[in-house]
Design brief:
The protein is an alpha/beta fold and 142 residues long. The chain has 7 helices and 5 strands; from the N terminus they run ααβαβαβαβαβα. The chain is 49% helix and 12% strand. Strands 1-5-4-2-3 form a 5-stranded parallel beta sheet.
Length: 142
């Protein structure tokens, strides 16, 4: 035990790396617990079919009209604050959030989790992953 300060002094770079990596792991675990679970497209179809999950598409209206998951609700991420009342009816439901590539849906899920939503999932890879899995999209307004 008396040699720990000596070890730290002799291996400052390695100890710094250990602290940095430990901090990043803690950060990742903490925010994963606060956010949503990311799920793959096949799991989304299971949630829609067996748990009557609602799909919240947070892309722009134009992107939504070019192709979206059947029965998805479109609320642009930029206008989410304005349409909070509309989201209240989904608070007790299973909700899958999707965006274009999968990054923004995680951020939105975290903010909704803080507002009391419980069963939140984020489509890993977004609509791009949905298309790559050869799953159907519908065009036009919902």
């Amino acid at each position: 035990m008396e040699r720990i300060p000596e070890f730290i002094a002799n291996h400052l770079f390695l100890v710094s790396l250990l602290v940095a990596i430990s901090s990043l792991l803690f950060w990742n675990l903490f925010f994963s617990a606060m956010g949503s679970s990311q799920i793959v497209p096949v799991e989304v179809t299971r949630l829609i079919n067996h748990e009557d999950a609602a799909v919240l598409d947070i892309r722009t209206a134009n992107d939504f009209e070019n192709g979206h998951i059947i029965n998805a609700v479109n609320i642009d991420a930029a206008k989410l604050g304005e349409r909070e009342k509309e989201l209240e009816k989904y608070k007790d439901k299973t909700v899958v959030i999707c965006c274009g590539q999968g990054q923004e849906s995680v951020r939105v899920a975290r903010s909704l989790k803080m507002k009391g939503f419980e069963k939140l999932y984020s489509l890993k890879g977004g609509i791009s992953a949905w298309q790559n899995a050869s799953l159907p999209l519908t065009k036009g307004k919902a």
